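haha ok so turns out i had the wrong file open the whole time. this is the CORRECT one, sorry everyone. sequence first:
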Amino acid sequence: MTKIFTYLFFFCSLIGFAQNELLAQNYFDKGEFDKATSLYEELDKKQPGNFYFTQKLVSCYQGLKQFDKAEKLLLNKKGNSNQPTFFVELGYNAQLQKDQAKADSYYKKAIDAVANQPNYAYQIGQAFEQKSLLQQAYNTYEIGQKNNSGMNFDYQMALLQGQMGNLDVMVVKLLDYSYSNVNATLNVQNQLVLFMQDDGENVFVNSLKKELLLRTQKTQDIYWNQFLSWLYVNQKEYNKAFIQEKSIYKRNPESFDDIIQLAQICVNEKDNETAQAIFQFILQNTTDESTILNAQYFLLKNEIANAKPENYPLIQSKFDTLLSQFGESPFSVDLQILASHFKAFYQNDFENAKALLDKLMEMPLNIRQKAKVKMELADVFVFNEKFNQAIIYYAQIQNDLPNDEYSHEASMRMAKTSFFKKDFDWAKKQAKELKQASTQLIANDAVELFLLISDNSAEDSLKVALQDFSKADLLEYQNKPKEALDAFLQILVKHKGQSIEAGTLYKVGRNYEKLGNFAKAISYYQTILDNHKDGIYIDEALFYSAEIYNKQLNDPEKAKSLYEKVVLEHPDSIYFTEARKQYRQLRGDKQQGI
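then structure:
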């Protein structure tokens, strides 16, 4: 029984001690130093060798301007332990009292201790860093490393140079360190990213890029090409990253992994031009079937997106050849889904598209492959205006993959399907639930649909304009741009001046783009900019106008001006990143800025 009571007493004491520590920290965080002081005094008394409690108690005294108490405590602790870190604390206590001579005297004693015993270097250097005494910390590491060749503080000293504003020196030292310690490359890159995040003027990135380019030119070591490729990817300059990856491959043709990864990044970031160049390069240099299939899939998908009806027979023959080569099996499931999409949305062949997908559903697919097939089946049913069947498949995906990004996509498409079938209240409810979706694109689409329904329900209880818009929107979904354009133009006449106008102008512009009438598209985007300045389509109108001037009308100055407006005036836009990238390319990176 005695042992049990002893254990219980010890256990309760631990709980009480922990509670006091949490309470003291809470008071300290709120700046209630008087309340925190009494608790830390008790904790320090119970654990006099705990340096953390000593530091906290000293900070409380300093917060209360009781510098004499702080000094007395530190001198007492110093006498008992003889640890030179107390010199740093004593110096900082003097500095708070604006006695810099006394502070410098203590700091010198701390650094002298390192000169005599280099093993103290890390401990004292960290103490200086905690007080933001950067030059003293740097001197400490430098002396410690000089007096003990087994110590290496290059990493800490490089970061301190950066914090002191010597960014060029930091870059050189960090790159030297990472090259000498390859396993530390990721840590170095993570630190560089932190500096890039605060690099509003792009000065640091340019300095880093310049240094890496010099190193790739001076040496044939692929390490620097890999590092430069990483920087270009970080800056979303994927075409430049590809140049580096090609250089690496020519000198080390054993693996395609990094090039394939870069291609996938380009696909995800919708840099189709660079992705296409990468996949073509891959096809020329690999015999791996899986890699070839992935490359062919993307190239065919990209070709479809830019094809005209007269190209469809050739595309179909490519599908036939590839499916014959790779077989109709789970191995080629993505290719078969793409083939069915092409049949439905481009060849208007619903029956054969559905038949191909039904055949796929009978194969031994994993849960994500089945979800892909169901998503396409649902899309094909929407295309054929069989909305209820489509909703069933979208719902199955939600049940099969709850809380998954694919499930959120299915939910968004279900909301859009409800909109097509003119069930506006249900579509609005679904869109509202998706406004906080983790994927920005889905969230943006949900907000757009929600506002479209809300704004046009308030002034039109019969929702006549929404019904007309829904019909035109479905034609656009069915890849019928001419019919969709006519329907949207009728809305502009029939519902002129109503809330539906801004969204309709945007749709008219997009469909003119699909039909290759870029001048007309720009004129409708300009109407949005002139007459609907407070609407939700401003960033779209700016961005797509810029894209047309940049990529179709060869007017880079006009494009640059519009991209700049997206960046400066719409930082939350989903087009922000691409607009900034295009702006920088048009600017030629010859000046600093956004």
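The longest helix spans residues 2-29.
again sry for the mixup
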